[in-house]
Specification:
This protein is mainly alpha-helical. The protein is built from 2 helices and no strands. The radius of gyration is 27 Å and the shape is rod-shaped. The N and C termini lie far apart (about 90 Å). It holds the Pfam family DUF4169. InterPro entries: DUF4169. This is DUF4169 family protein.
Length: about 60
């Protein structure tokens, strides 16, 4: 005899596995830890300060004097 399968449970299980695979894909594409975001922001700020500090002509609005 064949096993009886509850289609409602089968559909729910299939939908759950599809959501899990989609979530895993999104985590790999978009997921970054808070520390990684802070590190990237800090390096960006340092680079901006470095470039601003080595400009030949300074903006009158930004100058302290």
């Amino acid at each position: 005899m064949a096993d009886i399968v509850n289609l409602r449970q089968f559909k729910k299980l299939k939908a759950r596995t599809e959501r899990e695979t989609l979530a895993e894909q999104n985590r790999t594409l978009h997921g970054r830890t808070k520390a990684e975001k802070q590190r990237d922001q800090l390096t960006s700020e340092r680079a901006d300060k470095f470039v601003d500090g080595h400009r030949r002509e300074r903006d009158p609005e930004k100058s302290d004097r």
